[in-house]
Amino acid sequence: MRLIIFIGMLCWMVAGTVSAQTLDSPDGNLKLNFRLLDDGTPVYSLQYKGKDVIKESKMGFRIRPSYVFNKDFTITDTRFSESDTTWKPVLGENSEIRDNHKEMFVALQQNGTGWLLNIRFRLFNDGLGFRYEFPVQKELRNFTLDGETTEFRLTGDHKAFWLPGDYDTNEYPTTVSKLSEVASLTEKVRQEPLAAKAFTPGLAVQTPLMLKSADGLYINIHEAALVNYPAMCLDLDDKAFVLTSHLTPDRNGARGFIQTGSVTPWRTVVVSDDARDILASNLILNLNEPCKLADTSWIHPVKYVGVWWEYFTGQGSTWAYTNNQDIVIGETDYTKEKPNGTHGANTAHVKEYIDFAAKHGFDGVLVEGWNEGWEANFAYIKEHIYDFDKPYPDFDVEELHRYAAERGVKIIMHHETTSSVADYERQMEDAFRFMADNGYDAVKTGYVGPIIPRSEYHDGQWMVNHYLRVAKTAARYKVMVNSHEAVRPTGLCRTYPNWFAQESARGTEFESFNGNTLEHTTILPFTRLMGGPMDYTPGIFEGDLSVYGSNKAKLSTTLVKQLALYVTMYSPLQMAADLYQNYEKYPDAFQFIKDVAADWDNTYILEAEPGDYITIARKAKGKNEWYIGGITDENAREAVIDLSFLPEGKKYEATIYADGKKADWRTNPKDYVISTKKVTRKTVLKQRLAPSGGVAISIREL
């Protein structure tokens, strides 16, 4: 009897060894473990320098109507490989990126059904990526997901930087709390007035989710290469501290329509014991496919000004041409309508911005409100809201094209859909053809309000596919895309580099509504920007909007912090967002915005702590120029800026834009001092930052 038990135990141990696999990162700091539980459930775990990051967590799916596709598996094949290559992004924070990872591929077959499922893991020095792959098979072809059961089982009650789960918006302010406190805070956060909201049922948070453990680990959970699949939120068990994948459904509850031969997005876990490594990570970009555009010569960084901020200041400028809200697109003759006298996108006013852009070396002028339809832009109620190739009578397309071209400036098109996406899709080819015919090479798209088709959410599979259709269509017309109110990015700017910026978070415009927190921009690089560049629209110099009239809002930063954001908030699309008259009042401070680059050879993360402070240095692409931005939260601090990234044997001059001695975001935000200093790579600068203040530095070789 004892012999039989011993043999049985030996067989169990051998079977367990066969089904369990491990993978180490190239530097050996990260270890991935994968195995099947006794019931055939796939589970994985992740350690960093011997510490648990993700405890053993389940994987798999539920398939409609009631099929379980997360247990009863057998491993049929396991393969290992590794790769160490470099690639060059078209635009980016670094001119060259290293992709060094080890890979484990596991093939599974479900007992009973015979269905096949593959899981591919990639382990980098900065974290883990894994995805599911649905191979072509006889027994399973097209199916509907009821859910994904991927877990991230955490080790404790981590500090979290979170947004509440929502299918329609990423524009909530970030809340900082323990995971155990999320439930008590969620209802208050959801009261934030936003254009569209669709709460997840139950307790959930959005990705990218930034976490900090009590034992000093920084953990970021997100996804990469979101293609033909719904975006992921994370259900939160705030007692066991387990996060579970929550896919955005359509309004019928379907969470993805899948055909075998396809793959899911990568689930990503970036981890380090140094917060700077989180910001330096290229893991999400590395998990995206290489560029699919044969010719990228027309894609370039853009610094722009525009007819935009005046709509938010309270001084009366409007997007609409008339006050008649009974217009009908295609029927109303705007030449017979009475102008309201407040329309901002008129030919004479746009020429003022073109002149300003040309004088100060800006590439583009954004013009919002140029096209018919703004009088009756009722979201979700009305389907045919705008024409995307019909300008208002006071916006002379041909004249402005000529005027801008003569001055070396491009006008940036604006396609606000008010989320009538079905109508935008019908007009999209005509809209981009109109752009190509009239010299526009960049467009800002917008999706304010609930989505039409009325069965869809902003972050569902259908809309994920739409955003990519826009990028692909734009590429055929050699147009760069900056999408606002779209699904949060997942690194697709590598594959489609003409999709060169997004908003998809709470941007500067909220400074004119109910404000941004003082720590807001010290958090965004750890959350929203993990997936790709953000059109944050910084550069507001006049922060007291009461000077314009009815708006009583005040900016949450000093003027110098606004300068620093051009470095800390990466984007190849950067706006000088204020009214041009305010830059003319402060030409010495404006010089930094004129000088700072928007595309980079190298990036150096000098200091970082999420929610507290960030200091970043970057080298301008193809130039011996470096720019530094440092920002802080509500607490004044001393930034320690080590210049050892500078090349040896050279001398440099640093121009330092600093908060003045009396600077304070509340009482004296425009107190600043500009000085110059000779520096070398041995120099360490120590610079005081005011409450919600910053420092901006430009360095040139002597």
Walkthrough of the structure:
The chain has 702 residues and is an alpha+beta fold. 18% of the residues lie in helices and 32% in strands. The strands form seven sheets. Strands 7, 8, 9, 10, 13, 14, 16, 17, 21 and 22 form a ten-stranded antiparallel sheet that branches. It has a seven-stranded parallel sheet with strand order 28-27-26-25-24-23-29, with helices on one face. A six-stranded antiparallel sheet has the order 30-31-32-37-34-35. Helix 7 packs parallel to helix 8. The radius of gyration is 26 Å and the shape is globular. 51% of the residues are buried. Residues 1-18 have low confidence and may be disordered.
Short structural description:
Helices cover 18% and strands 32% of the residues.
Nearest-integer average pLDDT: 96
Shape: globular
Q: Report the helical percentage.
A: 10-25%
Largest β-sheet summary: 10 strands, antiparallel
Rg on CA atoms, Å: 26 Å
Q: Unreliable stretches, pLDDT < 50, 5 or more residues?
A: 1-18
What portion of residues belong to β-strands? 25-35%
Structure annotation, total helices: 12
Going by helix content, strand content and strand pairing, the class is: alpha+beta
Count of strand segments: 37
- The first-to-last residue Cα distance is 86 Å
Subunit structure: Monomer.
GO molecular function, one term: hydrolase activity
Cofactor: Ca(2+)
InterPro entries: Aldolase_TIM (IPR013785), GH (IPR017853), GH-type_carb-bd (IPR014718), GH97_C (IPR029483), GH97_catalytic (IPR019563), GH97_N (IPR029486), Glycosyl_hydrolase_97 (IPR052720)
